[in-house]
Design a protein that fits this description.
By secondary structure, the protein is α/β, with parallel strands linked by helices. It has 4 helices and 9 strands. The protein has one domain: Rossmann fold (3-Layer(aba) Sandwich). Helices cover about 25% and strands about 30% of the residues. The model has no long low-confidence stretch (mean pLDDT about 95). The structure holds inosinic acid (IMP) and magnesium ion. The site of magnesium ion has 3 residues, from loops.
């Protein structure tokens, strides 16, 4: 598979993200909410670059897609921390159509946080369908399907240490 971002480039982007987050929050205590499952690798790398007092929670967002049609999004927040009166930073792997982050932020806003901001590793060019922009973005990428560094195709490839483009011949050779 074609490499879009190698390990060093990913690490540099995550370090830059941490610098921007630190500049925004300073020493203020932060509650991080990772969106499962795609954010797990970013979450692990990013939190170790942040020095403010930090709590880490997760929620799961899953949408059932068929082809290019968007499916119903389900948010499972049973495992999440209490976010009332906290400064919350939502972490996700990729901002694609944007519907996932918009719904996650709306759900968190209902829980009386002090503030909610969002950080993503990737933003895909020309795909957004919402009037919303993440506060922190490590990389803008072309409109291609990517895997690795947490991102999956059919639940595989999350463990790749680099970000790869899944091309038609890769899809054909994929073992389910
Ligand atoms: P959105 O709601 O369209 O912004 O979709 C966000 C979710 O779709 C991400 O958290 C990913 O799980 C998934 N997704 C979107 N584009 C890609 C991709 O290129 N590779 C892997 N997953 C993707
Ligand atoms: Mg995801």
């Amino acid at each position: 598979m074609k490499t879009l971002l190698d390990e060093d480039e990913l690490q540099a982007g995550v370090t830059q993200l941490a610098t921007e987050i630190t500049a925004a929050y300073g020493d203020r205590p932060l509650t991080i909410v990772g969106v499962l499952t795609g954010s797990v690798v970013l979450l692990a790398d990013l939190i170790r670059l942040l020095d403010m007092p930090l709590r880490v929670g997760v929620l799961q967002a899953s949408s059932y897609r068929s082809g290019t049609t968007r499916g119903q999004l389900t948010i499972n927040s049973e495992m999440m921390l209490n976010v009332a009166e906290r400064d919350v930073l939502v972490i996700d792997d990729i901002f694609d159509t944007g519907h996932t982050l918009v719904e996650v932020v709306a759900k968190l806003q209902d829980l009386s946080p002090n503030s909610v901001k969002t950080a993503v590793l990737l933003r895909k060019h020309g795909r957004q369908e919402v009037e919303f922009a993440p506060d922190f973005v490590a990389f803008d990428i072309p409109n291609e399907f990517v895997v690795g560094y947490g991102l999956d195709y059919a639940d595989q490839y999350r463990n790749l240490r680099y970000l790869a483009v899944m091309e038609p011949e890769d899809l054909a050779s994929h073992c389910p």
